[in-house]
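Message: A physicist's question: would you kindly supply an amino acid chain plus fold tokens?
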Amino acid sequence: MSAPDPMRERLPQLSALRVFESAARHGSLTRAAEELHVTHGAVSKQIKNLEADLGKALFVRRNRGVFLTEPGRALAARLRGIFGDLEDALADFRTKGSGQPLVVSCEPTLCLKLLIPSLGAFQQETGIEVRVLAAGGRIDVRRDHVDLAIRRNDFPIDGTLHARVLCDEAMGPVCAPEVLARFEAETRRFPLPALHTRSRPDSWAAWKRLNRPAIACTADRTYEHFYLAIEAALAGQGVALASIHMVERDVSAGRLCSPHGFWPDGTQYVALTAHPIEDDARASRFVDWLSARMNATLAAAMPSLGASGAAVAQPAKGRAIHGAR
């Protein structure tokens, strides 16, 4: 039997290195604990043990905060790359197995109103199984084991992600046909509330700021989620400001009316991945399919905007995209 390698015996525990990398990346023990689903005390203990093992201070603790020392900063930079490579290797291992589904994270209302109703045709056409997770906002695609995330670029996107524009967003007021019939032409007023949503709290303000057609309602009513505001509009309870991509089926079927049409709001839907999308044939095909589907919807609702949109997804650009590695 060969003698044990003394260098390997001195390696710190992988869990302690993982805890330190998370704390260094966030600049906070509390946020590291939240990310790793452990207690603040457990994070603090792991880092103290690691410092004792290495014989060097990794953080300076002052004013109830933690700040990296020079050795800590150097170690954190190396570990970030090492853990990134490890996560990439595991992601490649998972996706190259036979029959592995493409895991897609999508904003909940877009998921319910567009993606899920359309997935059957995509899967039948391509044979690619898609597993959908409903989630919005910022995402760590590696930590959440997601192959692809569909988001609107209304928030700063991690510059280490690869991003492709799918389609422009277009918003417009929608209501049930019976509500439109009650529109007061003389006062240009709907005798029902404007329906707001906490998931896009500034949508009505943006509509006014962009000088879109004026909409007057009797009051304001706020729902927790976009989907609920659309359902309330379908039920004749008011006027919602909605995305064409979320209500296209309802408008086409006559369940909703769009009295002022749909207008761009300056944002875009983007596909986000940890690796170049073209490196994964499943992701590439899905992105091209979804982009074509959304641009077709946009072209039908807004011919001038839709005609200028790309038929396939393009590299992301715009103020909210920080870049791709």
User: Anything to note?
Assistant: Confidence is low (pLDDT under 50) at residues 306-325. The first helix runs from residue 6 to 9. Residues 171-265 form a domain with the D-Maltodextrin-Binding Protein; domain 2 fold (CATH 3.40.190.10).
